[in-house]
Structure prediction request, 522 residues.
Amino acid sequence: MDSPNEKVVLQAEDVRRALVRVAHEIVERNPAPPAPVLIGIHRRGAFLARRLREQLEELLDAEVLLGDLDIGFYRDDLQRRPDAPIVHASHIDFDITGRTVVIVDDVLFTGRTVRAAIEALFDYGRPARVQLAVLADRGHRELPIRPDYVGKNLPTARDEHVHVRVEELDGTDEVAIAPAAVETPA
Amino acid sequence: MNHLLSIEELDRTEIERIVAQAARFAEVSDRDIKKVPALRGRMVLNLFYEASTRTRSSFELAAKRLSADVVNFAASGSSVEKGESLKDTVLTLSAHKPDAIVLRTPWAGAAELVSRWCTAAIVNAGDGKHEHPTQALLDVYTLLKRLPGGIDGASIWIVGDVAHSRVARSNIIAFQRMGARVTVAGPPTLIPRGIEALGCEVRYTLDELAKADVVYALRMQHERMNESFLPSLREYAAWYQINGRRLGPRQVLMHPGPVNRGVELSGEVVDSPQAVITAQVEAGVVVRMAVLYELLAGAREHQPDPTRPGRSAPGHPGRPDRQGQPDRPENVKQLA
Prediction:
């Protein structure tokens, strides 16, 4: 998985600090109760959302609702991909209608995933407000989508790969940039 | 997978993949808006040459939950009654460019034939006494949810009219692929000779039924019985009916429906907590969603040329092997 040419741009400690900062910004922007709800996008966004919740609950001293969302059904390239992607179950066990929802993802790139997530979210209810938190914004947007909270802005070339690793899945927390030519696991 | 024609052509990994995918689809039915846009713009044609309410409506619901358009075509009251052949009907309906045809016919092998005549993905929803693969998949799904120890090593008895039952054939294969030991039981006239070739055991009495973990009762198919296979239904019920006396408290009872109460099952067992018959119906929708999704999501660019007689190559060029797909690796065995 680790390619030799890969450059680690955020270490575990940097990831932790970035999430703490994002949590503080979320509280600053949403001071009035009820607390915002967090929806993590499968798969790494869901783990990041879980960590943000711990931070938020501490800061707000209140329960923060957490859900996760798989956007497979809502992809705009479903009919172009060679094969049907594996879709995971989504878990949103509460009513999001009227709430402030913060979508959490690992990397913001073209914006297409976020578009799909917003569409999916509206099948569950009508949130009062939707905000977007990402660990890394690497630019190259293809849609008019802008994050509300960014852990780290990463200037990248379009064909480079950004890997976000999380302890739960990959054994370590880090963000790395790999050059274009390398064969990469998605 | 280009078509779903039989369970025979699926290995254990493929069965597990479809069933695991179905488990993730179950959540869609609990949402406010019970619909996802995955198959938007795709057309599913239900072509039914035999009466069927639950299979057809279950396919229809599955397609609609995935936002596909559905056209139902029943043979009665149509051009078929005016003498049109299966091939001409399929070719005519293909002019509407369906992406999938769900086909139910009284003729074994019809689904396989139709798959050579058109570019649509064919889903066999029952072909004569041959196979009914989605029924077997939904039964595997139901059992995986119900049996704490899984299907591996379980003893499953399939009881009743095996001779006329495509469900029996598909399920014997599917259950065995999933690691179960299968026994078929029923009156000798309703057990086809040579059924052991599928790898199951045969019993002509229910004396050892207590050994079963799962009892799968089949429907007595009066409509297919042109000759007299039985002295009477009462006599059948006396010897082979699954009732409170024969069914143990820890055994799971399944039935593909519709149930003939008082014939293959007594009323008390249908209403007992061991019966998972309604769970089977529920499973039907999510499993068929998984099948339609598997067949229709993704680009279908390598379809066989219908003007050529052969099927497409078994290796499916153009579609990468799913095991090698790096996108989402953990794709099996996580039933909710």
Q: What stands out?
A: The interface with chain A takes residues 21, 23-28, 31-33, 35-38, 41, 66, 293-294, 296-299, 318-320, 322, 325-328, 331, 336 of chain B (CB under 8 Å). Chain B has nine helices and nine strands. Residues 302-336 of chain B have pLDDT under 50 and may be disordered.
